[in-house]
Amino acid sequence: VVDAAFELSVGERSRAVETPRGFYIVAREEDPVVGPTEIWARHVLISFVEARRAVEGVTRSRDEALALAEQVRDEARAQPERFAELAGQYSDEPGAADRGGDLGPFGRGAMVPAFERAAFALEVGVVSDVVETPFGFHVIQRYR
């Protein structure tokens, strides 16, 4: 399989290559655009009763949390400059009010996969769709 791969030019596919485990077809592609290795972002976490590490006092259901997260997303998109204020007002993350939801810089692999994919896909200044993780629903803004 490796030999077949190295014989290919970019954009080519091999014929079926037989191995003890079955047949493989190898394609040689352009290097993917991987983007930045570190970004700066802030978020609002809307938790619910069944969410992992839900703070004491959270009584909302998953559906109620989703509805609130969608409301926060809409407000943040309408006035992105108020994101830190919205984090202080709505986020269930301990300390979010003091930090405006700021997570500071973080690299790939530092966050749960769904959060990371959404955050790294954002352009600077853009507010994400609602993102669900085991911790609840997040609204993310990449700021650097």
Describe the structure.
It is built from five helices and six strands; from the N terminus they run H-E-E-E-H-H-H-E-H-E-E. It is of the alpha+beta class and 144 residues long. Strands 4-3-6-5 form a four-stranded antiparallel beta sheet, sandwiched between helices. A two-stranded antiparallel ribbon has the order 1-2. The longest helix is centred in the middle third of the chain and has 17 residues, at 62-78. The radius of gyration is 21 Å and the shape is elongated.
Note the topology.
Layout: H1 2-7, E1 17-19, E2 22-24, E3 38-46, H2 62-78, H3 83-90, H4 96-99, E4 102-107, H5 113-121, E5 131-133, E6 136-142
Antiparallel strand pairs: 1-2, 3-4, 3-6, 5-6
Helix and strand content put the structural class at alpha+beta
Strand content: 15-25%
User: Could you say which overall geometry the principal axes of the C-alpha atoms support?
Assistant: elongated
The largest pleated sheet is described as: 4 strands, antiparallel
Helix percent reads 25-40%
Rounded to the nearest angstrom, the distance between the terminal CA atoms is: 41 Å
Low-pLDDT regions:
none
What is the tally of beta strands? 6
How would you state the average pLDDT, rounded?
A: 94
Q: How many helices in DSSP terms?
A: 5
Give me the side-by-side strand order of the main sheet: 4-3-6-5
Strand/helix succession: HEEEHHHEHEE
Radius of gyration: 21 Å
